[in-house]
Amino acid sequence: MKLRLAGILLACALVAGAWFSVRQLKLDTSVNAIMGTDHRSRGTYEKMDEAFKERTVVLAICKIDQLFSEKGARQLFAISEKLKSLPELEDIRSLTHAARPVKRGNHFDIRKNIRLEVFLNLEEKTPEEWAELKDFICHYPMTRDLMVSADGQYTMVLARLKNSEIGLEEKILLWEKISESMKEFEEQGIEVSVLSEPVLSAEFFTLTKTFVAQVLLAGFILILIIICVSFKSLKILIWMLALELGGVFLCPLIFALNQYDLNVYTCILIPLVLSLQLTFLVHFFAVYQQAEQNSNNPWAYALKRVFRPSCIALLTSFIAFGSLMFSEVHILQVLGQLGVQYLLAVFVLSFAPFYFLSKSSKDLEKHSDWQEKEDYSHGLVRVLNRSKAVFYLGASILFLSAFMSFSKLETDMRAREFLTPESETRQSLELVNDHFGGLNIFQLKVVTKEKGGIQKYENVKYLHDLRNRAMAMPGVKNAYTYSQFYTTVHQLFLGDSLSHGNVFPPEESLFTYNLILNSQRFPFRDVLQNEDLTESLFILRTDDVRSHEFIKIAEDFIELSQENLPEGLEIVIPNGLQSILKSDQQILETQINSLGLSLFSMFVLLLVLWRSGKYALYAFLTAASALASLVLVMYLAEINLNSVTVMSGTILLGIVVDDAIHFLSYYRHSIEQGHSHQSALANCFHSKLKPMICTSLILSTCFFLFYFSPYPPMREFGLSGAITLLCGLVASCLLLPALLSLKQRD
């Protein structure tokens, strides 16, 4: 009675704590969370926001037929005005709402001869004038690839949020407002795509909510069916569902204690840890169900047989999650930290009731192991006796193929690959990449300690020459630098067309041009210089190339920038190449090393606990064969090697070895009871095959659910994980017994 009362009180406390914690829990769908494993793509968004003075930028990419005509100009003006009317947006910039410098008159004060006029006004023009204006704007350095595509087919409207610190609900509302305001233009045949952090967050939230509501419910039903078919016991089903429900209630408590929100990566933990909890329960109740027939205390019997190997399996899972804590990717550190705590909590929750139930019974556990005669009748034992050589050969081919395939895996993760091709945000990213000079941005700062030093002739000339050399680099689509303002003004006074102007002014003109630049608000001038003119930003744009190509461009550009550097100038890379290298190379290498260290740590752990190098080696080879199958799956499915897929390898390693641990523990115990090798294998298959198949199906179902995720990296994680777990089951059922039979006679 006291035990039941204590259980009820603890359950009430758990539910109350979970209810309080879940109200504080939020779903983080910000760019930092979504692109937590890709610093390069996340940096592109941050640099775009930095260009707008740390306000969140909103881009509306429009495809307007005959943009350079009276009708097209009026349509662009209407779109810009519609966005301007939204109370959340300000600082609208487009071809109809941004100005360029023009030379008018011959005033004594030369600064008054230069004034700003909009790029695309609504005045009537002849077809020849429209064609000339198109040629000018599509070549003008401060509009090409910024406000208009080089071919003139696409134009961009830029805005910024009045308040960048808005919550998720406000982001969703803003997305709905922008979408609604653009409908009238889409009905006119204008294609409008919106790209912005609030839109991205809102879209991810909607997709995630739909995924959780539909797919995870289907997964729960499938797992329920697997349990019912495996055990055919209502009592066991109720026990497992009750403990799983307790595991669900623990989740918000763990997140609240660590002060973390849910995101696309930490959401993985919930089904993953709950599935691991199910594996503990399946192994326990498989033995419990056998003991019910011939033991007077089945709780104690099952606990005695299962608890120790379950603890070993828990430790190997700790190693898998713990290795993530040493990753250089913050989101993976969080995943490892939460995973270790959550797994420990559900383990205690799962076995604590069994311990108290085993102690509450007055009857001592009286059950001898395997009193029946030796059993050679199991089909898998006969298969092993006939086909050991085939399994050895198959394993050798698997390891050799994986070794050869690993070097051929691509190592890359790019921003648009976080979304499906149907996503509005991905379509916008592809438009930017294909029509607006490339998706990726690399920048460096040119710094001088002298106030106004950036406007000295030798420094401006250096920037001009550096841009010319950068534009000649393979893969570079465009470059923006402070010197372009000088070539623009110089062309005004030469009277030539600005369209092809890249002539640097003579030194004697610089003083006059400085006066003009400092008195006029040129487009994007504040982006490329600071207030006291001691710093200038150099921006390089490339296609959405693969990581190693982008790194090569960045390295070559940095080396180029050091050549002919004037005295007093310094090159500073703000969160540049160092963070890029970490995100694309060093982080990946660190995670691969952590994966190898995890495998070695598991081997050492089993060696110490079992005091047997043979059994530890067999478990090691079984887990390694599953990793080898993962490499082959990734190679055949053309899945890139990146932080997400390496993370899946680490987690899968800790899971796959669990079946091997339970199988070997049962085998060793059978041998210690005096049974022969053949009898021990038969007993293992009779007692462990069903729970091994059940747990593998549950875990494979859990992983396969992620195949229906709206995020391609999670799809790859789910597909590769599900197949690898099934391969791990085959390895535990065939390769592991074959290894145990190495020196045994048939």
Automatic annotation (TrEMBL):
InterPro entries: MMPL_dom, Mycobact_MmpL, SSD
Cell location: Cell membrane
Coiled coil regions in record: none
Keywords per UniProt: Cell membrane, Membrane, Transmembrane, Transmembrane helix
Domain SSD: 620-742
Membrane-related topology note: Multi-pass membrane protein
One GO cellular component term: plasma membrane
TM segment ranges: 211-229, 236-257, 263-286, 306-326, 338-357, 389-406, 592-610, 617-637, 649-668, 689-709, 721-742
Cross-referenced Pfam families: MMPL (PF03176)
Keyword Membrane appears in the UniProt entry: yes
Protein known as: Exporters of the RND superfamily-like protein
Originating species: Lentisphaera araneosa HTCC2155
Lineage summary: Bacteria, Pseudomonadati, Lentisphaerota, Lentisphaeria, Lentisphaerales
